[in-house]
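Translate structure to sequence.
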């Protein structure tokens, strides 16, 4: 039996995972509903899966942050304490992450094996290029997009689906948080 793999990502309306300029974390739009909901997502037993670049970015942000910063929101702390697999051909353990292991090799092979062996669901937050490859290989069961009410046409960074294959999406869940943040969960299937 295979376990479920969720690609979880934050996005601007125009499809960017981050922005430069004077935008802050969450594009400055976070509220108590979003933060409480994010915390509840990480209550469940699950395994995180990151690519090397996302792991490095999270580790650096946490190292550079203070207890009061957005980076240390309770859901991030809870996520950091979940069992984690970092897929990398360049990193070696031990990692500066409480329960992380490095899986060397191609992400498609690593995640296919994890889906077969894991007794808990798998979740990846970010790791854009890795998750595009996993989607193309048919390994992503759910795409969870938290859509923030911003357009970052001039300052957008990290186009989430830039270079991705074509997919049809079936909406399986949706919710509005803090009045104008949308969480959309889709089941992707490769468009033939």
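Result:
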């Amino acid at each position: 039996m295979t376990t479920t793999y969720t690609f979880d990502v934050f996005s601007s309306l125009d499809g960017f995972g981050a922005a430069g300029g004077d935008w802050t974390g969450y594009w400055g739009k976070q509220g108590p509903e979003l933060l409480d909901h994010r915390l509840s997502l990480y209550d469940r037993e699950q395994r995180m899966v990151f690519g090397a670049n996302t792991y490095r970015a999270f580790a650096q942000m946490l190292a550079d942050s203070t207890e009061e910063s957005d980076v240390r929101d309770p859901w991030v702390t809870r996520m950091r304490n979940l069992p984690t697999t970092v897929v990398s051909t360049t990193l070696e353990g031990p990692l500066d992450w409480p329960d992380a292991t490095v899986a060397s090799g191609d992400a498609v092979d690593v995640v296919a094996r994890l889906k077969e062996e894991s007794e808990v669901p798998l979740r990846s937050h970010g790791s854009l290029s890795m998750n595009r490859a996993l989607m193309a290989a048919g390994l992503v069961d759910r795409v969870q997009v938290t859509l923030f009410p911003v357009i970052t046409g001039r300052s957008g960074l990290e186009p989430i689906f830039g270079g991705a294959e074509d997919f049809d999406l079936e909406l399986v869940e949706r919710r509005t948080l803090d009045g104008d943040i949308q969480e959309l969960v889709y089941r992707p299937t490769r468009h033939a």
